[in-house]
Write a structure and sequence with these properties.
This protein has 325 residues and is α/β, with parallel strands linked by helices. It is 32% helix and 22% strand. It is built from 9 helices and 13 strands. The chain has a 9-stranded mixed sheet with strand order 5-4-6-7-3-8-9-10-11, with helices on both faces. Helix 1 crosses helix 2 and helix 6 packs across helix 8. The protein is elongated.
C-alpha cells in the first residue's frame, strides 16, 4: 500500500511569511492563478498586456501598481493577429516610456492551443519548462478548448492542469475569460460565463465593467483585501494607447439647505450674536424653521449658542465684542 506524503502542521514551510507576497502589488499575488474577466470589448486584453509589460520591465502596471518581481512573460493571444499584439504592446510601452525591444515578452504564435488535448497540454508544459516565465498569460479561455464551459467537471480539469503548471514551475497564471452580456449589475465573480469553477479557482481575480464609456476595475484576492470600482481610461493617440488608472474623485459634499445658508449668511454679516427673533426678521422665515435649522447648524459645528444669541463658530467671542463696543 502506497501512502500519501504527510507532515506535521508545525513543520510546514513558513518561509513565505504570514502576509501576501506580490507579483504586482495590490493587483496580482506572487505565483497566483486567476481570471481577468469582463464583457466583450471591455479592454480585458489591454489589461493583460499591461501586466505583461509591467512584469517584464518593472514599471508600474496601469501607471499605478508597483511591480514587486520582474521576469520573463509568456503570452498566448488567440484572438488577435501578431501585428495587433505588437502594436498594443508598443502603445503601452510608449505610455511608460519603454522600448519593447528591450523587454523579455515571448509570444506563442501557434495557430491553436487546446488545453483539453493531452498533446497540447504537453507542448505548453514543455514550453514553460524551457522558457521558465514568471508570468503566463492566456487570452481568452474560450479559444483554449472544445469543452462545455457550463460543466464543472470539464472546466475543473483544464483549470487543474493550469494549477499544476503554477505549482511545478512556480509562476503566475492569468486566464482571460468572458463575462455574461449585460452582466454589469451582477457581482463581479458571479458574472463570469459558465461554471462557478472559474471564480473559485482564482487566487487573484480582476474584473472590468463597462457602463457607457466608463470603465471600472474590481480586484479580488484569496488572501488579501480587494478593491472595488477603480476608474480606468484608455489614454494615448492612434495606435499608441493603453489603460491607465484614474485617481478617485473626492466624494461630493452633501447639498446644503438654502434656508440654512440664509441663516449662515445672516450670522456672518452680523457684528454681534443674533437672537432667534432677529434671525427670523432678517431671513423672513418662520420661527419654527429658524429653530430647527439652528439645531442642525450646531450639529454640523458651524454655529454656537451664547448667552447673547447665535453666532458662527469662527466669529469672535461675545466678551471681546462687548468690550470693543
Amino acid at each position: 500500500m502506497k501512502l500519501l506524503p504527510v507532515q506535521p502542521a508545525y513543520k510546514l514551510d513558513a518561509s513565505r511569511g504570514a502576509g501576501p507576497r506580490w507579483l504586482i502589488e495590490g493587483l496580482w499575488a506572487d505565483q497566483a492563478v486567476g481570471i481577468v474577466g469582463g464583457e466583450p470589448k471591455s479592454c480585458k486584453s489591454f489589461l493583460v498586456l499591461d501586466m505583461a509589460v509591467a512584469v517584464a520591465s518593472g514599471s508600474p502596471c496601469l501607471r499605478h501598481f508597483p511591480v514587486a518581481q520582474t521576469g520573463r512573460v509568456l503570452l498566448y493571444a488567440a484572438e488577435d493577429a501578431p501585428l495587433v499584439v505588437r502594436q498594443r504592446l508598443e502603445g503601452i510601452c510608449s505610455l511608460s516610456q519603454l522600448n519593447l525591444t528591450q523587454l523579455d515578452i515571448q509570444v506563442i504564435t501557434a495557430p491553436s492551443l487546446r488545453l483539453d488535448n493531452i498533446d497540447d497540454q504537453k507542448r505548453l508544459r514543455d514550453t514553460v519548462d524551457q522558457l521558465r516565465p514568471k508570468l503566463l498569460l492566456l487570452d481568452p479561455f474560450v479559444r483554449l478548448h472544445r469543452i462545455d464551459e457550463n460543466l464543472s467537471s470539464e472546466v475543473a480539469a483544464i483549470l487543474g492542469y493550469l494549477r499544476s503548471l503554477q505549482r511545478l514551475f512556480k509562476l503566475a497564471v492569468v486566464v482571460v475569460h468572458h463575462a455574461k452580456k449585460a452582466a454589469h449589475h451582477i457581482r463581479a465573480g458571479q458574472a463570469l460565463r459558465g461554471s462557478s469553477e472559474f471564480h473559485a479557482w482564482g487566487d487573484s481575480n480582476l474584473y472590468i465593467k463597462r457602463r457607457a464609456e466608463k470603465l471600472t476595475l474590481t480586484v479580488e484576492h484569496r488572501a488579501a483585501p480587494g478593491q472595488n470600482d477603480l476608474p480606468l481610461t484608455l489614454q494615448g493617440t492612434d495606435d499608441q494607447i493603453g489603460l491607465c488608472l484614474l485617481e478617485r474623485p473626492p466624494p461630493p459634499k452633501p447639498p446644503r439647505s438654502p434656508t440654512g445658508e440664509q441663516i449662515h449668511d445672516a450670522l456672518s454679516e452680523a457684528k454681534v450674536p443674533l437672537r432667534v427673533s432677529e434671525i427670523r426678521q432678517i431671513c423672513r422665515i418662520r420661527t419654527e424653521t429658524v429653530c430647527n435649522m439652528l439645531v442642525q447648524l450646531q450639529k454640523e459645528g458651524r454655529v454656537i449658542k451664547t448667552h447673547q444669541g447665535y453666532q458662527l463658530v469662527s466669529a469672535p467671542d461675545p466678551v471681546s465684542l462687548s468690550r470693543s463696543i
